């Protein structure tokens, strides 16, 4: 009989054929350990996420396999786990490169945001009172919005830097692609997205403080336009970020 990655229906009702062995000594878990065809892999964007899908499939099949078959060897003397490692060694390397490239890009953007928001905290819109040193717009709502959003952007971008730096220093073991690396990347991207959003809020609040006396309509229009990059950034994120 034929097994394969499309054999999920064979794992269904009544668990038929779980003990079957093919001509080469492979049980169902051996066949689940084989690398998926390129057409199926290409449905998922990114080598690291492809590796995660492969691990998820292997672990799911493993749940249905009798314990004695999990360590059984085929005619080549390979257990299902050993076969999985051999079949996916190139994908692990590609996943490591993809993950590091993504993490480095995120770190660069997050570092720039942290730098700008840190500097903005000392260059306040409107300046300070020369006599007291107190910010001129201290008691306005827009100034409060600016301070809070700038601080949130700084904290979230700094968090993103720390998280993605952990990705760069990971060991990139096969099992790390199942949960650990994926979770770190999601948190790193989510905090980066939040830092961009709050940075745009701080930018809009600054414009409103500077222009609301003379050209309030301009400040409102530009502030609304500031939401466009945030929306585009959200839509550009891979679908798995919203899981």
UniProtKB/TrEMBL annotation:
Keywords: Membrane, Transmembrane, Transmembrane helix. The chain crosses the membrane at residues 106-124, 136-164, 185-211, 217-237. Residues 96-209 form the PGG domain. The keyword Membrane applies. It comes from the Eukaryota. InterPro entries: PGG_dom (IPR026961). PANTHER family: ANKYRIN REPEAT-CONTAINING PROTEIN NPR4-LIKE ISOFORM X1, CASKIN. This is Ankyrin repeat-containing protein NPR4-like isoform X3. It comes from Nelumbo nucifera (Sacred lotus).
């Amino acid at each position: 009989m034929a097994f394969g990655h499309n054999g999920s229906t064979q794992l269904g009702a009544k668990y038929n054929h779980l003990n079957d062995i093919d001509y080469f000594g492979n049980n169902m878990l051996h066949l689940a350990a084989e690398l998926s065809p390129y057409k199926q892999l290409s449905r998922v964007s990114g080598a690291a996420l492809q590796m995660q899908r492969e691990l998820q499939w292997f672990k799911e099949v493993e749940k249905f396999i009798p314990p004695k078959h999990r360590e059984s060897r085929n005619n080549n003397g390979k257990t299902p786990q050993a076969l999985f490692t051999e079949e996916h060694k190139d994908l692990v390397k590609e996943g490591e490169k993809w993950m590091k490239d993504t993490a480095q890009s995120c770190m660069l953007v997050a570092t720039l945001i942290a730098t700008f928001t840190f500097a903005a905290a000392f260059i306040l819109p409107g300046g300070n009172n020369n006599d007291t040193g107190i910010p001129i717009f201290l008691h306005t709502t827009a100034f409060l919005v600016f301070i809070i959003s700038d601080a949130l952007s700084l904290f979230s971008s700094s968090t993103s830097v720390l998280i993605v730096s952990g990705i760069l220093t990971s060991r990139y073991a096969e099992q790390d692609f199942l949960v650990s690396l994926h979770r770190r990347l999601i948190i790193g991207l989510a905090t980066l997205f939040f830092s961009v959003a709050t940075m745009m809020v701080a930018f809009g609040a600054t414009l409103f403080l500077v222009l609301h006396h003379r050209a309030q309509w301009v400040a409102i229009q530009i502030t609304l336009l500031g939401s466009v990059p945030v929306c585009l950034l959200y839509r550009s994120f891979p679908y798995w970020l919203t899981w």
